[in-house]
Amino acid sequence: MINIVPDMWYLEGDWISNKSAFADEFEARLTNLEFKKVLKDPTISTRIEFQSYGQNERKSIAIIMGIIDNVLCIRRIANKEAIDWIVKNVPE
């Protein structure tokens, strides 16, 4: 993900596939996600752990909201209880 644009709890950025089988599966699985449906039922999506770099370097948990025209949109999760729920209920 490059050219990342933050908007509150959301991040959008250009999705650059490394053309691996895993990346192809990831993209195929998420291309048809609908943002509003994921908001209502996050269990239909997938969770990721990502690393941010810079001044506030840290690992975070997020839910994939979708990939539209090679733009990946994710929803960061910060609340401890929400993270616990996501880990238990949303597939990797």
Describe the structure.
This protein is an alpha+beta fold and 92 residues long. It has three helices and five strands; from the N terminus they run E-E-H-H-E-E-E-H. The chain has helices at residues 21-30, 35-40, 80-89; strands spanning 2-7, 10-14, 47-52, 58-68, 71-77. The two termini are 18 Å apart.
* Helix content, binned percent: 25-40%
Q: Choose one word for the global shape.
A: globular
Total strands: the figure is 5
H and E order: EEHHEEEH
Largest sheet: 5 strands, antiparallel
Report the structural category.
Answer: alpha+beta
The order of strands across the largest sheet is 1-2-5-4-3
Q: Gap between N and C termini, in Å?
A: 18 Å
Total of helices:
3
Radius of gyration: 13 Å
Binned strand content: 35-45%
Query: Which residues sit in consecutive blocks of at least 5 with pLDDT less than 50?
Result: none
Question: How confident is the prediction overall: mean pLDDT?
Answer: 88
Can you summarize this structure?
The chain is an alpha+beta fold and 92 residues long. The protein has helices at 21-30, 35-40, 80-89, and strands at 2-7, 10-14, 47-52, 58-68, 71-77. A five-stranded antiparallel sheet has the order 1-2-5-4-3.
List the topology elements.
Blueprint: E1 2-7, E2 10-14, H1 21-30, H2 35-40, E3 47-52, E4 58-68, E5 71-77, H3 80-89
Antiparallel strand pairs: 1-2, 2-5, 3-4, 4-5
Features:
single chain; 92 residues; alpha+beta; five-stranded antiparallel sheet; 5 strands; 38% strand; globular
